[in-house]
Amino acid sequence: MRTSLLLLGLAFTAPSVLLASDAELANRPFGLVIHGGAGVIERKSLTPEVEAQYRAALSQAREAGYAILEKGGTSLDAVVAAIQVMEDSPLFNAGKGAVFNADGFCDLDASIMDGRTQAAGAISGVRRIKNPITLARAVMEKSEHVMLAGEGAERFAQKIGFEFVPNEYFQTDFRRKQLEAAKLREAAAAKKKTSSLTTSDHFDRVARYGTVGCVALDRQGNLAAGTSTGGMTNKKFGRVGDAPIIGAGTYANNATCAVSATGWGEFFIRVGVARDIAAQMEYKGSSLADAANATIAKVGQLGGDGGVIAIDREGRVALPFNSVGMYRGFKLSTGAAAIEIFGQSK
Amino acid sequence: MRTSLLLLGLAFTAPSVLLASDAELANRPFGLVIHGGAGVIERKSLTPEVEAQYRAALSQAREAGYAILEKGGTSLDAVVAAIQVMEDSPLFNAGKGAVFNADGFCDLDASIMDGRTQAAGAISGVRRIKNPITLARAVMEKSEHVMLAGEGAERFAQKIGFEFVPNEYFQTDFRRKQLEAAKLREAAAAKKKTSSLTTSDHFDRVARYGTVGCVALDRQGNLAAGTSTGGMTNKKFGRVGDAPIIGAGTYANNATCAVSATGWGEFFIRVGVARDIAAQMEYKGSSLADAANATIAKVGQLGGDGGVIAIDREGRVALPFNSVGMYRGFKLSTGAAAIEIFGQSK
Prior knowledge:
Two copies of one chain form a homodimer.
Chain A: E1 5-6, H1 22-27, E2 31-39, H2 48-70, H3 75-88, E3 108-114, E4 120-126, H4 132-142, E5 147-149, H5 150-159, H6 173-192, E6 211-217, E7 223-229, E8 239-240, E9 250-252, E10 257-263, H7 265-271, H8 273-284, H9 288-302, E11 306-312, E12 317-318, E13 325-332, E14 337-340
Parallel strand pairs in A: 4-5
Antiparallel strand pairs in A: 1-12, 2-6, 2-13, 3-4, 3-7, 6-7, 9-10, 10-11, 11-12, 13-14
Helix pairs in contact in A: 2-3, 3-4, 8-9
């Protein structure tokens, strides 16, 4: 397993139930971690120009979230701001630039969780919402539900005044070519076999991944996590991955940590990745790093791959993954910061 | 919290990695627990005739599953058999007799998990599959996915040869009247308010619940869990509850336990109820009973209610709930058995 763990023993005053004084707030650690998807990301497959584009976009997303935290804003606001930047960028498989499903549409999933209250919101299979993470947040804050699916989620968005975009807004030539390539591979493979019961035998390992996410700790000591994705190229049958599943792709609880996952969603659901990391901290007293590593190892044992980003209430972060690469970055109030793409974090 | 816990210290030989001998198998505990939903079930609201119908249906479901276990069948087969009986009965909010959504359709969700492999399958929002639990199982066994939603799930069902029924098959006069009553209450309440951002202010506490589920331990020591539901009367916006969410409504792992939940789905998702019980056993060494009680207490602290059924690998069972009642039953190879509806288990 490749790991890029950071154990930053930040000075942290015990959480106060009362409002913290300005002096206390000034000393509290804060920061955020972002990811732009994990998978087969090899140095040779990225030209220097494209790599620079990814680094710039990751940096822009990170700074958008960090600026909010620095000004004393909430971790929820920071998570949404960072994810919106990645949704708006055509580079990532979320929002604009999302992958195409088998029918030639972009189907979007997102979820968010508030570590302070354990409130959560999730949407799956929406096609006309520019920033899915903002709709997930609206489900959390403006409905009595946690998860809304498909057209129903869009009817809710309409009711509360969301702006709609045509599905073409999300569609890019790059992703359309990925879909065409996936369909050609599928057709070629289908010729070799007479029948199959699997839904997609010819899974594109490269195109399987690509989710964006952010976890943040604010100056008030509140954690939040969010995840947004277009799912899997050429996906069929209304497949739902881990991104909109609270406990699998996203989890936050002030008592432990905030986690956003990216990887082979089916394994991440079975393991309940995000919640599993928090559960080890809650019930076993594990450190964030040990818990995150153990959970990614479990995913690997079942045959899956991917990674997570996580931050705990003391501002320690972990970014383990067992895939070839993971687009990722973090910035902490200690000054520690990085943007990475390939195997090992520097 | 009302609890009905059974701690049955059954003689249990340590699990063998090799095939067990007939003599060993004969000594292994096995059994199952079922539920037919939790909620406001008061003695005064059930006539003796209706109560007798529920008891007979619960008993029929339990016996269908137990017969399979007794003959040496798998816990997965037992779970599906027990749930199918409840799906086929108009008494429960699953399959035939499911509640109506706001558009006047029955929308069905189900999930299943295999404790031996942690394989899982789930479907949400299907309208034409007679026994949703069998489609959830097919997703687990015949697709590479864990969760399929809506029309996509039905296209998968068609591809693998499932028989379809019209949505009218599920619809009953009793549930139609519940929908009409819910809409009248909603309209009356809407007159008193000029606007609202909530999706359903006038949530029907009585009609909110009603899910069916089964957890089983077979003679081979394998655990399985399954859950099936029609969701919430008058539900809107493609709302997804906990029943199809692996880790919330359903979880099974031979290392710990199998759990199926029923209750106010939003809280059950936020707590990740089924996985939370297993996590306490896995990471903290809690007993099944302590873990199940602690998790239901967490749901209560957040403001939710409902219950779970659970069985561990030694055949101990727990059936805690904090709602007024829960339709439930169990039968174990020790001879212990019960069918209960109201507050306290005898």
